[in-house]
Write a structure and sequence with these properties.
30 helices, alpha/beta, Aspartate Aminotransferase, domain 2, about 950 residues
Length: about 950
């Protein structure tokens, strides 16, 4: 039987043999030595090379059917009760047309972050829809393309307020009625950067401090209370601060917008717009700002520009990837977004339109008001008169009420010893309300009550919304399922994803996301769990988490793993906060210097600053390795203050550094800790372990090495793994179902995500990947990835210099092609090559990172030899085209490279006046005639778009 690993790994045994022959690799005369093992020993330094483990905790690889059966067994141990806990997580109905055509469609979930906008127009339009939806509902001028979740969005809002406020105060005021998980996360983030949090009960009329730089208001409050925050906002402005409001988007279809109340920043989640609770995530948070704060926005921002023909075109705008440019001066360490979830939420708004959303919100508010009436009739005391979806009830037996509710199949919020919160949503039924009454009274209602929507609700009249929103035609044009299906198909066709061909992005590991791995994420037993459900309801998910933690700990050489960080950047932050906590626990509060090589990922430096550390840059040598002499000098200069070194292994230059253990030993000798960035783990898995290199803590990218799809720029998961001495400082969570993790470790650090286990809803993907690959398959995948990268490097070396190699002339899982000599000889730039690759049917490799003017190519193990050869052929032909420009065959300003990419309309509209033929433009390879991908726009003018910033849906007339 063909194993899952055989299907996951692209080159088969015959292909691998031919590739090894091309590299000149043999078994060196030994009949027992595998040539692939010879290659890996040439590439991986002998000092860190690891033989396969004899007693792995990872079970022998399962078949796809066996893995699904085991997941079904785990799912059966979960109990999906009706969640009425609220606290930012609600039941919602994902329209089937969106679930099937977006969430379950590889055209959407296997796409990469839209750094190449010409082949990302579908996703970018969906994100423009998202930004327009958020901007309209919040009443603020500009929204970004999503945040990681609501709680982290609030933290980013706090940091934005600190940057933008002219106040010199370090005080940030927090609403006492904020979500508990948000308050916990704020304390984690504020402590590291010297912000003083002051809590105020706005409901009780408590006044603001005299000095502050910002204030945070929850609207509606965690208790369900709806109150006018404008007085608090005005007082914050008088004190020189900014006002951040966390608002429920569904409520904002009925309530006045934060912008109309004077807010500077609005944040929140779009979870209840069709995205399942999924035991905490992934969900798309949001952030919107008033005019004047656009350039302070963290994360991604989609804007409108124009292409070479003057047609409107979308692209990422302003400070996108700013952390790679500004490093320790970056305003945020977030380098991605929750694109797939933002697309779902935006399409929920497109599907329902403003009238549909308002109707859903009205029914939710009516259910809550009806529940209030029935509870009052049953003798209950209601705490708040004004509310949207949450009724807070004062009772002397709160715990018993919650227990009776659980026994009846509903989950209520124990809001204190004498209070119970009940939240309704679009899925709440009349039967659910009957069970709530039974939970409070201990007996059944006299007769079942049906929900009749009368429009009655408990919203205060002064806060009722009167202005229009979602007026753009896109929110009115797709009412039938036929129209919606075609719109989603039309957008998907404008994009390039893994279902079309290879995405050879260095440092990004765009590997196969197998269908079997994806299967379980929509099962109700995983998708419909509230993140704060009782422990007994989520036993299957907790067991799966324990298993995945243990597997990840083994393959990395660490002792403990937290799956909470919901992005690689958050994993970095969590690891550095663990180091900080460790030093502080030892009384070394003065250790705050973080050494970072100049070649490191930009998020490293930004994360260090957000963890309260000072960045000192270490030089790299001409081979791309850490300069050991400079490292020792920087250690000596900062010996007493040294907190950590952050390195990426293999290096950011795609090379296994021979002296890595000398580097880590030098840091340890000086009293520092070593953070090994896990971005390049796909080159190491099964052959070496971070913990054995001298690493104390690392983050891993499950959306890279462990097969969670990139989703067009998210979701991502960045678990943090650590040695035992740092384990107590890994992220904990006040609402976690359990405190002990795999191996018996208890994490006491503050949370870095709103949910206890982060984006737990997509963990079945990585669980299935490891379970079906087994330890041997993981090792085989690493070898295949390294083989493919070396094969590409060798085949292209005569055409493009390979910038860095190891001592034996081998690269790791990626190679850097130096295009600077090409530019000098021909005038053709790295941008020209990247855009011309689109005409050949490829997504470009990573451009100008870590070295300007280069392409970093990472084929992964998933691409077969035929696809590798297709890419190699394209690159060789592009080199020949550039040489033709240098030879004068084509003018420097009119050739297939500088005019790339070529759209269909550019080939047929008007007279063809170019120096090259239409065929050379459109079909550089004859085989494309039957498989051609047509980009929807020509090359986009990013600078024009930044000078004329538009970040919401342009009018239809713009496309005329």
């Amino acid at each position: 039987m063909v194993s899952f690993a055989d299907r996951h790994i692209g080159p088969d045994a015959g292909d691998r043999g031919r590739m090894l022959d091309a590299l000149g690799v043999t078994s060196t005369g030994s009949a027992t030595q595998d040539p692939i093992d010879v290659l890996m020993r040439q590439a991986v330094p002998g000092t860190i090379f690891t033989e396969p483990a004899a007693d792995s905790v990872i079970p022998v690889a399962a078949t796809e059917a066996e893995a699904l059966a085991e997941l079904r067994a785990l799912a059966s141990r979960n109990t999906v009760n009706r969640a009425m806990i609220g606290l930012g997580y609600y039941g919602t109905i994902t329209p089937s047309v969106i679930q099937r055509n977006v969430l379950e469609n590889p055209s959407w979930y296997t796409a990469y972050t839209p750094y190449q906008p010409e082949i990302s127009q579908g996703r970018l339009e969906a994100l423009i829809n998202f930004q327009t939806m958020v901007s309209d509902l919040t009443g603020l001028s500009t929204a970004n393309a999503s945040m990681l979740d609501e709680s982290t969005a609030v933290a980013e809002g706090m940091l934005l307020a600190r940057r933008a406020s002219k106040s010199k105060s370090s005080v940030f005021v927090v609403d006492a009625d904020a979500l508990p998980q948000t308050k916990a996360l704020l304390y984690t983030r504020a402590d590291a950067v010297g912000i003083e949090l002051v809590e105020r009960d706005f409901a009780a009329g408590e006044e603001l401090p005299e000095e502050l730089f910002g204030v945070f208001v929850q609207y509606p409050g965690a208790s369900g209370r709806v109150a006018d925050p404008s007085a608090v906002i005005d007082a914050a402005h008088v004190a020189g601060g900014l006002a951040v409001v966390a608002a429920d988007l569904l409520a904002l279809t009925l309530l006045r917008s934060p912008g109309s109340l004077g807010a500077d920043v609005a944040v929140g989640t779009t979870q209840r717009f069709g995205v399942p609770m999924a035991f905490g995530g992934p969900h798309a948070g949001y952030m919107a700002v008033r005019a004047g704060l656009e350039r302070q926005l963290p994360g991604r921002l989609v804007g409108v520009s124009q292409d070479a023909s003057g047609y409107p075109a979308y692209r990422l705008a302003l400070q996108t990837r700013e952390q790679h440019i500004r490093r320790e001066k970056a305003t945020s360490n977030i380098c991605t977004a929750q694109v797939l979830l933002a697309v779902i939420a935006s399409m929920y708004a497109v599907y329902h339109g403003p009238d549909g959303l308002k109707a859903i919100a009205g029914e939710v508010a009516a259910k809550a008001a009806l529940l209030r009436d029935r509870l009052v009739a049953a003798g209950a005391e209601i705490v708040h008169d004004a509310f949207f979806d949450t009724v807070l009830v004062r009772t002397t037996d709160a715990a018993a009420v919650v227990a009776r509710g659980h026994e009846a199949g509903i989950l209520l919020h124990l809001a204190g010893p004498d209070a119970v919160g009940v939240s309704v949503d679009e899925t709440t039924t009349s039967e659910d309300l009957d069970l709530v009454i039974r939970a409070f009274t201990g007996k059944s209602a006299d007769e079942p009550k049906s929900i009749v929507f009368t429009g009655a609700n408990a919203l205060p009249g002064a806060l009722r919304r009167t202005d229009d929103y979602l007026t753009h035609p896109v929110f009115h044009a797709h009412r039938s399922e036929t129209a919606m299906m075609r719109y989603l198909k039309q957008l998907a066709d404008r994009d390039y994803a893994l279902d079309r061909g290879m995405i050879p992005l260095g440092s990004c590991t765009m590997k196969l996301n197998a269908a079997t791995e994806m299967a379980a994420i929509t099962w109700p037993e995983f998708a419909q769990l509230h993140p704060f459900a009782p422990r007994e309801d989520v036993q299957g998910s907790l067991e799966m988490i324990d298993q995945l933690e243990a597997w990840l700990a083994e393959v990395t050489g660490y002792d403990a793993v937290s799956l909470q960080p919901n992005a690689g950047s958050q994993g970095e932050l969590a690891g550095l906060l663990a180091i900080r906590g460790y030093h502080h626990a030892n009384g070394d509060v003065h250790r705050d210097v973080c050494l970072i090589p100049s070649s490191a990922h930009g998020t490293n430096a930004a994360s260090a600053v957000l963890a309260g550390m000072k960045v000192v840059v270490v030089a790299t040598d001409e081979l791309g390795n850490v300069d050991l002499d400079d490292l020792r000098a920087k250690i000596a200069a900062n010996a007493d203050a040294l907190a950590a070194l952050m390195i990426t292994y293999p290096s950011t230059h795609g090379v296994y550094e021979e002296q890595v253990t000398d580097i880590t030993a030098a840091v340890h000798e000086a009293g520092g800790q070593v953070y090994v960035d896990g971005a390049n783990l796909n080159a190491l898995l099964g052959y070496a372990r971070f913990g054995d290199l001298g690493g104390d803590v690392s983050h891993l990218n499950l959306h890279k090495t462990f097969a969670i799809p990139h989703g067009g720029g998210g979701p991502g998961i960045g678990p943090v793994a650590a040695k035992a001495h740092l384990a107590p400082h890994l992220p904990g969570h006040p609402q976690a179902q359990k405190t002990e993790h795999a191996g018996g470790y208890v994490f006491d650090g503050g949370p870095v995500s709103g949910a206890p286990y982060g984006s737990a809803g997509v963990l079945p993907i990585s669980w299935a990947y490891v379970r079906m690959m087994g330890a041997a398959g993981l090792r085989e995948a690493t070898a295949a990835a390294v083989l493919s990268a070396n094969y590409i490097a060798a085949r292209l070396a005569d055409h493009y210099p390979v910038l860095y190699t190891g001592e034996n002339g081998r690269v790791a899982h990626e190679c850097i092609l130096d295009l600077r000599p090409l530019k000098e000889a021909t005038g053709i730039t790295v941008d020209d090559v990247a855009k011309r690759l689109i005409d050949y049917g490829f997504h470009a490799p990573t451009m100008s990172f870590p070295v300007a003017g280069t392409l970093m190519v990472e084929p992964t193990e998933s691409e077969d030899l035929g696809e590798l050869e297709r890419f190699i052929e394209a690159m060789i032909m592009i080199k020949a085209e550039a040489d033709a420009v240098a030879a004068g065959t084509w003018p420097a300003d009119d050739n297939p490279l500088v005019n790339a990419p070529h759209t269909a309309v550019s080939l047929i509209a008007g007279e063809w006046a170019h120096a090259y033929t239409r065929e050379q433009a459109a079909y550089p390879v004859h085989a494309q005639i039957t498989t051609k991908y047509w980009p929807p726009v020509r090359r986009i003018d990013n600078a024009w778009g930044d000078r004329n910033l538009v970040c919401a849906c342009p009018p239809i007339e713009a496309f005329a």
